[in-house]
Design a protein that fits this description.
The complex is a heterodimer of chains A (217) and B (594). By secondary structure, chain A is mostly helical. Chain A is built from five helices and no strands. Chain B is mainly α and 594 residues long. Chain B contains 16 helices and four strands. In chain B, a hairpin with a 2-residue loop joins strand 2 and strand 3. Classes of the chains: A mainly alpha (217), B mainly alpha (594). At the A-B interface, helix 1 and helix 4 of A face helix 7, helix 8 and helix 9 of B.
């Protein structure tokens, strides 16, 4: 299980060291280079941790969903709201961001990764801007948070999702910046992989939220 | 030994030198564990003080305590406690004890301290996140304390915060700022627990030393592992429910508040919400929460019983499956808290059957603890005494749970002192005994000094007799139909014959709380003045934390990663030169390798 096995073995699966600068270090003595080990260990940890975080977030939304189903079932006061058409555009933007992110992830050790990450962050920000406009549109129609249980859930679910996505945009932006500024970053691949996992999951979560709102509104 | 050790080139982080990085914002799991443990100790003092005030008020309702007025000018005008203040104290006693003591010390405190060392890791998987978890929890505690002292006083809706009482600021004096702070505190605590849980699970999955398979893990690690999974799933739902409740209070939504309510002669502007929805969401969290509180104690007790009985734990695999079984079944029994809330009898039967079912793994554990003790040459050191006391109160509290799991019996007992007795023994006192045991057991490792044994033993006995004196009679009160949560008993005729019993309980509570001073003094005195522990393994235990100096160096193993050759409880091994084999003793070697 542990990656700190006795003799230093070359890493065969997955996490190779960055092709990086020649010499690969700062004049350390001929002991086994630490990079491959640390990068592999970090990748594994980050992935596990991120899957667990996604598990936790899923449970939060499972809680919201069960409240949604029960509250709608009580339903004498439930009035369906029509969803803002802008959501279609926002969804397309978010799906596109997953494509650019995948481009970054597959080139995670190449210089181009930074630009793809930045593009993803920009698309994410565009989605958030679009969500804001969708909320404004609803508000202009006189549909507010407390207008109806249906609208309460609309704002709750889209808002909670947006909050998670905002964290994702911040993470993408930070990683993109570090990729650009920091020449040697041992956990670079791990960080990109974990961020990508999070982002794709938030993308999937959005599809789920959208379907829930479409079917259940 | 060269083959069995490999050098780690990438330390998790270098040892800090400044005071702030070393003791306050430390990344070291050992320091963070002790911080959690101290936080729980601070919280338990507050929680105990609140319960003492409640007990005093119950038997001397008109006693004037003028200093109360200086803390709660309206809640204790003239020095006499109002019913609302009593309910506020009750709410905060429960909240602080459940979250900041029972959830904090056994899992986050001891888990943080011992888990990485027991699995042979230099630290938790995410040290920075670990530090963040602690400080988030700390902020949650400060917010909870603030809820006691804000204008209007503490919330009066109990630690379960049932709406509509908890959802309407106009519903009571503590239901304004106090209730809002209560929800915010719980939400903050939930976030801290989620971060901690994620860190625990990742650490166990990815950082175990070579040779430490899952089925060689100490039962402590198994308990922390399953508890972390429960916390990850349960606290997420509490967080969701808390957000909904906060929105009902502040944004005018109606998730939980039904229509047509009249509070203080005013019609409430909500409609269609369901208070039952909150109960389902809350107890979906709330029942796993009681296992979050007790499982780590079970792990610690298993470890200690085996060590001090000098016998392998009876049925290691059965113990592991029982922990996992409790974890799984723990998510299917929440409805037994709601038999009286309006529930289809068929649903109630389902929850009842599942509740009976969870008694099975609990009974397996108890059986195995007794099996471990059976015929052993027991070393009666204080950790062992605390651990045996744990088994006793766990069984006593568990038996009354079987009564309460029957819907028809619960109809009678619900909201009586019987329930108070039940959950205090099984969840409160048992978990606290787990903490006493863990403290006495790991104290030499933590601080390089022993606790004072005679004081610990006296404390153990007085507390043992004390808690039975307190909670034993409460069963009888419940059988007699004495409702819980009543702040005054004098005006209720059918309760008058029970008043002597209430006096007795209060006296016992005063004595038991006084005895806790012994423990606190022992902890802080021993930390600086206790007998020095020079050796690595004073209890002759087998797990990895006993292979390193007391206290361990910053990265636990000084850059050397241990290799594990055997299971955790190899005591009295036939043919071995001593009566135990450490997990790091190489296979087949009867003599220690060092």
């Amino acid at each position: 299980m542990a990656s700190t096995l006795a003799p230093p073995k070359p890493q065969t699966a997955g996490a190779g060291p960055p092709p990086g600068p020649p010499g690969g270090g700062f004049g350390d003595d001929p002991q086994p280079p630490p990079q491959p080990d640390e990068a592999a260990v970090a990748l594994r940890r980050y992935r596990t941790g991120m899957w667990l975080a996604i598990g936790g977030i899923t449970m939060v939304f499972a809680g919201f969903t069960s409240a949604y189903v029960v509250r709608k079932g009580l339903g004498a006061d439930w009035r369906s709201i029509s969803l803002p058409p802008l959501l279609g555009f926002n969804t397309a933007v978010l799906l596109a961001s997953s494509v650019t992110l995948e481009a970054a992830r597959r080139r995670s050790l190449e210089p181009a990764a930074g630009a793809w990450l930045a593009a993803t962050a920009a698309l994410g920000a565009l989605f958030l801007g679009g969500q804001y406009l969708a909320w404004r549109e609803l508000a202009a129609r006189g549909v507010y948070l407390a207008t109806n249980p249906s609208s309460s859930f609309f704002y709750l679910l889209t808002g909670a999702h947006a909050l998670h996505l905002l964290g994702g945009v911040a993470a993408l932006f930070t990683v993109a910046l570090r990729v650009r500024l920091q020449r040697v970053w041992r956990r670079r691949r791990a960080a990109i992989e974990a961020t990508a996992l999070y982002w794709h999951s938030m993308d999937a979560l959005w599809i789920y939220v959208l379907l829930l709102l479409l079917v259940g509104r | 030994m060269a083959e069995s050790h490999a050098h780690v080139h990438a330390h998790a982080h270098a040892a800090p030198t400044s005071f702030i990085r070393k003791y306050i914002f430390s990344l070291d799991h050992k320091v963070i564990g002790i911080q959690y443990w101290l936080l729980a100790m601070a919280a338990v003092i507050v929680g105990m003080a609140l319960s003492l005030l409640m007990r005093l008020h119950l038997v001397w309702p008109t006693a004037q305590m003028s200093w109360l007025e200086s803390i709660w000018p309206t809640g204790a005008a003239g020095g006499v406690m109002t019913p609302e203040l009593y309910l506020g104290l009750m709410t905060m006693h429960g909240t602080i004890m459940v979250f900041f003591v029972l959830t904090t010390a056994p899992q986050s405190g001891f888990g943080n301290y011992a888990l990485p060392i027991q699995i042979g890791a230099a630290d938790m998987a995410f040290p920075t996140l670990n530090m963040l978890s602690f400080w988030v929890t700390f902020v949650g505690f400060i917010v909870a304390l603030a809820a006691i002292f804000v204008t209007g006083g503490a919330p009066i809706s109990g630690w379960t915060g049932y709406p509509p009482l908890s959802a309407l600021p106009e519903a009571g004096p503590g239901q304004g700022a106090g209730q809002t702070l209560w929800i915010v505190s719980l939400a903050i605590f939930a976030v801290g627990s989620l971060l901690g849980a994620l860190n625990f699970i990742t650490t166990i999955l990815d950082l175990r030393a070579k040779g430490l398979t899952l089925m060689r893990m100490p039962l402590t690690c198994w308990a922390w592992f399953v508890t972390a999974i429960l916390a990850l799933l349960a606290f997420a739902v509490l967080l969701a429910a808390g957000v909904l409740l906060l929105m009902d209070r502040t944004a005018g939504t109606s998730f939980f508040v039904p229509g047509g309510l009249v509070v203080s002669d005013k019609i409430i502007n909500h409609s269609g919400g369901s208070p039952l929805l909150w109960q389902h969401l809350f107890w979906f969290f709330g029942h796993p929460e009681v296992y979050i509180a007790i499982l780590p104690g079970m792990g610690v007790v298993s470890q200690i019983l085996s060590t001090f009985a000098r016998k392998p734990i009876y049925g290691y695999r059965a113990m592991v499956y029982a922990i996992v079984g409790i974890g799984i079944l723990g998510f299917g029994v929440w409805g037994h808290h709601m038999f009286m809330s309006g529930m289809s009898p068929y649903t109630a039967v389902t929850f009842s059957v599942l509740t009976m079912a969870i008694g099975v793994p609990s009974a397996i554990k108890t059986f195995n603890w007794i099996g471990t003790l059976w015929g052993a040459r027991i070393r009666f050191a204080s950790p062992m005494m605390y651990a045996i006391a744990f088994v006793s109160v766990f069984v006593t509290g568990g038996l009354s749970g079987i009564f309460l799991g029957q819907p028809s019996v619960d109809f009678y007992f619900h909201d009586t002192y019987f329930v108070v007795a039940h959950f205090h023994l099984i969840m409160g006192v048992a978990a606290i005994y787990g903490m006493f045991a863990g403290t006495a057991y790991w104290f030499p490792k933590m601080f390089g000094r022993f606790m004072n044994e005679p004081i610990n033993k006296i404390h153990c006995w007085v507390t043992f007799l004390g808690v039975y004196a307190i909670f034993g009679p409460m069963h009888y009160l419940g059988l007699a139909g004495h409702p819980r949560r009543y702040s005054e008993l004098t005006g209720v005729k059918f309760l008058q014959p029970l008043e002597p019993l209430q006096y007795f309980i209060t006296i016992a509570a005063i004595a038991t709380i006084t005895a806790q001073v012994l423990f606190l003094v022992n902890v802080f005195w021993s930390m600086f003045k206790g007998r020095r522990c020079q050796e690595e393994n004073p209890w002759e235990s087998t797990t990895l934390e006993w292979t390193v100096p007391s206290p361990p160096p910053h990265d636990n193993f000084a850059g050397v990663v241990p290799v594990v050759y055997r299971g955790p409880y190899e005591y009295s091994v036939p043919g071995a030169s001593k009566d135990y084999l450490m997990q790091t003793d190489p296979e087949g070697a009867a003599k220690p390798a060092h």
